[in-house]
Write a structure and sequence with these properties.
By secondary structure, the chain is mainly alpha-helical. The chain has a domain at 6-112: Ribonuclease H-like superfamily/Ribonuclease H (Nucleotidyltransferase, domain 5), CATH 3.30.420. 45% of the residues lie in helices and 3% in strands. The chain has eight helices and two strands, in the order H-H-E-H-E-H-H-H-H-H. It has a two-stranded parallel ribbon with strand order 1-2. Helix 3 (36-49) links the parallel strand 1 and strand 2. Helix 4 packs parallel to helix 6. The radius of gyration is 22 Å and the shape is extended.
Length: 173
Amino acid sequence: MHGLSDAFLADKPAFAAVAAEFVAFVGDARLVAHNAEFDRRFLNWELRNCGHDQIPIERVDDTLTMARKKFPGAKHSLDALCSRFGIDLTARDKHGALLDAQLLSRVYVELMGGRQIGMSLAQQGAHEETVAIRVERSYVAPRPHAATPAELARHAAFLKLLKSPLWEQTGPV
């Protein structure tokens, strides 16, 4: 499937050795995965074993679920979606994490509506049928730290520089 042998993996670090670096790299970013629940469960098992917080489902966009909603009854594998969107698969002969992530990023863009071809406001491709999908998103709480007194003071000073801000024109809500 991926072509990684035991001999190749013998000198590679276990997840526990790189878990802190992984958590720092990911931060609180949204994650995109194909068949995300599989990946999330695997990662959460490893993270839990290393004493790290788990990744909540609200932080994950699943391209498999998105594709099933957008194209019911069609094939939804990464290869099938790449073919559907005209994404070149010639470099993919095995399941490789880096190449799959690059391909998935392009599939994700297409599932979210596609790339913008130009900056023109003229309607392009008016003859094409558009399909709307609703992606359920949950509220993600803000970061658990507040602004420092110095940051609040700088913010207040900046707001005083604004001439006729909108909130002063509209009054209390």
